[in-house]
Specification:
The protein is an alpha+beta fold. The protein has 1 helix and 3 strands.
């Protein structure tokens, strides 16, 4: 769920929030997008500490 992602910003009672990684409005209960799954899977396959940096 997007609501558990550290990139998801929302208030405690809000059902909608904002994904700071991809600059999109998302529902707290939305399924994890495919691109997020791929991003985290690649990071965890490498091992060690996972650090994701947003390019500006």
């Amino acid at each position: 769920m997007c609501g558990t992602c550290p990139f998801f910003l929302a208030g405690r009672e809000d059902t909608m929030g904002f994904c700071t990684c991809f600059s999109k409005h998302k529902s707290r209960w939305a399924n994890v997008p495919k691109r997020c799954k791929e991003l985290f899977e690649k990071g965890f396959q490498i091992g060690g500490d996972l650090v994701i940096v947003i390019k500006e």
